[in-house]
Amino acid sequence: MKTQIAVRNLRLCTKDCLCLYVCPTGATDTENSIIDVDKCTGCGACANACPSGAISIVPIAYPPQQKKEETVLGRSYRMAKNKAEQEAVARQLAASAGEDSLYRLMTAIAKSVRLVNEDLLRESGYMLPQSGNTHALLRDWVENPPFPGFPIAAAQKLLELLPNNDEDGETKKAVKKYRCKICGHVFEVADGETPVCPVCKATGDNLELLG
Amino acid sequence: MRYVCSICGYVYDEAKEKTPFSQLPESWTCPLCGAPKALFVPEKKAEPQRASAALVHMDEDMTKLSAGALAALCSNLARGCEKQYKDEERVLFQELSDYFLSVTPEVPGADLDQLLSLLKADLEERYPAVSEAAKAVGDRGTQRVCVWGEKVTRILHSLAERYQKEGGAFLEHTQIWVCSVCGFVFVGDAPPEICPVCKVPAWKFDKVEGRASA
Asked: Which positions in chain A touch B188 (Cβ < 8 Å)?
């Protein structure tokens, strides 16, 4: 199972094409310049060869996010609501602006406030789309649509597409731990799979179940 | 005496300049980031101690986020998917964000005064409050958000205030640029070489276009 894949930043790519020469599966050679996720094996050869630093290797599974304190979250959320109101006011002023300078200034302010608010909420528990917080929010919206006409299908689809990196114990417990009596290595296998020591390939009675 | 720009850190050193700082016209702006003269502070003057007592009144309940805030939350997640090259997910989060924006209620009587007072509330109450809570628990990520956000909010407040005082002449024959990373707003013919707040290069700035001519 591959654990990482290569991605290409098109703004940085200088088309030296070394990635095409070194890729063992042809994953970097595509009509839209986006590396083919299915073909990529995550070997990293392209990233090592790229002279412009346009290719980086990212993990497939992301770690859980840093936990945030309630005291910080409470105050951050209050500010997020204030910022949303600033954005709404700036949008309305832009929409009703007579002169172009006011229109541009208010458009700039609405855009700026949105960026600052995105940043604030990113640091308030919503950094990764794959987080438990994001999943909980999406699930809540699917079960209790927040407003009439809410696009439930979009939220449902996101729940299917995105893994949850904060998966609780219920889904995690399906592994068994073994110690190899031959080489001493301790390893885990998914429940139901035949255990084989990954170091010395020992099986059966040579493995001790730890729980 | 030396005066430091509170946005980008530019130093106006009276020993090296011809004009004492106090005699610079009020229309003088920071040569690096365009911050108005009023956002300069004398160097070394200790930061005024923030009165913690004022923060006691803060309501800390985790009430639900408003539709407008949820729009920002979802566009942030769309950005997170874009960075991971997950285009299908990006489009879906953007759909949710657009939906929340569409159900955001109109603010009654929206005007410049209201915008200025909302920005001021962030500068005087909310940033000190969030920053204090983040410092207390060693949350450096949120402290970083406060450093960037407070500077950007200061610039927005100064630009809106300037517009209110002298009208739009200062914007007429030039461009407005927004840093696509931190939201810093710059007025000038070309964007700054690096963003004075978050230090990204000029190409990360977006030009704000005027109304499309019919």
From this structure: none
Would the ipTM clear 0.95, i.e. be above it? Answer: no
pLDDT band at A211 (very low <50, low <70, confident <90, very high): low
On chain B, the residues whose CB falls within 8 A of the CB of A71 are 60, 133, 136-137
**B40 strand-pairing partners:** B5
Residue B176 and residue B159 in contact, taking contact as beta carbons nearer than 8 Å: no
Query: Which candidate, B201, B211, B205, places its Cα nearest to that of B176?
Result: B205
Flag whether pLDDT at B49 surpasses 50.
no
For A171-210, what is each residue's pLDDT tens digit?
455 678 889 999 988 888 877 778 888 889 899 899 998 8
A171 touching B (Cβ < 8 Å)? no
**A187 CB near a chain B CB, below 8 Å?**
no
**Order of strands across the sheet with B175-179?**
B185-188, B175-179, B205-207
Distance between A89 CA and the closest CA of chain B, angstroms: 5
The residue-averaged pLDDT of A136-141 equals 94
Which residues lie across from B5 on neighbouring strands?
Answer: B40
**Whole-number mean pLDDT of chain A?**
91
- Distance from C-alpha of B159 to C-alpha of B170, rounded to nearest angstrom: 10
Token pair 């007072």: residue: B117
**H and E: helices and strands count for chain A:** 7, 5
- Residue A51 to residues A48, A208, B33, Cα–Cα distance (Å): 8, 49, 33
